[in-house]
Protein 1
Amino acid sequence: MPEGVIVKALSGYYYVKPAIDGADPVQCRARGIFKKKGITPLVGDRVVYEITENGEGTVDEVMPRTTELIRPPVANVDQALLAFSLAEPDLNLQLLDKFLVHTEKAGLDTVICLTKRDLITEDGQPGENTQEQMALEEVVRLYEGIGYSVIVTSTRTNEGIAEARAKLEGRTSVFSGQSGVGKSSLLNALVPGLALETNEISSKLGRGKHTTRHVELIALEGNGGGLVADTPGFSQLDFLQMEAEELSSCFVEMKRAASGCKFRGCLHQHEPGCRVLALVENGEIATSRYKHYLVFLQEMKERKRRY
Ligand SMILES: Nc1nc2c(ncn2[C@@H]2O[C@H](COP(=O)(O)OP(=O)(O)O)[C@@H](O)[C@H]2O)c(=O)[nH]1
Ligand SMILES: [Mg+2]
Ligand SMILES: [Zn+2]
């Protein structure tokens, strides 16, 4: 029986893309057996399906998942592409660090995509109302230094598009980022012929409206293939299911340093013999990252108190 991947789930139907390049998805119903077993097929699931008489099909078997994201609900994702615009809206490094906590927690490889390169000055200076005045080069150096891939893109000049495409090949990736940063535009540039709806930013609010409603995987044809989910992003970035110690381990450079802390379970605040604090002091760990860590730690504590 043929195999494929669920690329869309809508109104009780699952759209299964056959494992053949260029083939159109088959509209399928899930077998009743899944409901009995309490399995809900997810977008991203690799499945065995069967074509029925009317040209539709049935999903007969769901293969074991390697990963399972809850928000957005996608199975088998192995990579996150975090889209952050350099301007309109201004680059928000605190939000980027928050997204990174979530991709680390989910165990995903992360590519940071800095979009709208054409909107900042030639020498990479940020807009005036950026909270943290960090030039492009500095931002790239910071995150590459931690170990992340950073790609700078513009859908106006096509800068970085080929590089982004290469990163997506052969993998299942989720695109995440605030609305209005250019996710759909980027996908349109990456996939010839795709015409995702993009939206203009309301200049008053500095953010776009949500036009991406359901999760859908888009196939990158040719070369190594690959699937990409254009999603509104991790909708609720809260820290409810996280312990303080886990938070610090999601800052990977702190995690690496933590083995050098005097106390196990060190939260890197005021503990004596804290290696992280020493590295912040000597500049090996960026102040911005450490500051955001403390902000999130505080947020977590406040959350816990409220619930
Ligand atoms: N100047 C510039 N504008 C862009 C770029 N990419 C997207 N935009 C614009 O940013 C707005 C939001 O883009 P969209 O792709 O809908 O963002 P999404 O909400 O993240 O999917 C639209 O007005 C796009 O035309 C870019 O590289 N440069
Ligand atoms: Mg969009
Ligand atoms: Zn410490």
Protein 2
Amino acid sequence: MIHLHFTSVIIAVILFFVAVMMQNGSKGQKITHMILRVFYILIIISGGVVFSSAMAGSMAMEYGLKLLGGLLVIGMMEMVLVRKQKSKSTGVLWALFIIFLVFTVYMGAHLPLGFLHI
Ligand code: HEM
């Protein structure tokens, strides 16, 4: 499950940047956005499965923060894309996206199943 989670995260972030760079309102952007939403679901399911089997230990708070961070990253990706499609400002959302992404990847990587855990 952790591999599905990690793979889904990488693909989702790439799809997000592809969708952002596409022409506003184009068919390609809409389709990429739809596929990205499928990956949100994969991330939440795979992360949720690992979460439920691993959080009830001494690192419950870290797992809780990781889950919250992950949901906020998904929220920011969705809000940046939707506001961009409506030609509204996205500056603050981009800043929050970067902050939440760095935090979530840091937490994920340092938790027991993460690639930087020692
Ligand atoms: C786009 C948002 C997210 C990003 C960028 C992200 C990133 C990561 C990364 C990089 C890892 C380490 C994976 C590895 O080293 O193989 C990880 C692990 C994990 N993530 Fe996420 N994640 C996100 C969303 C979520 C969500 C929504 C949940 C909960 C529903 C979640 C729960 C977990 C859990 C439980 C782990 C395993 C931690 C461990 O036991 O070591 N993540 N995540």
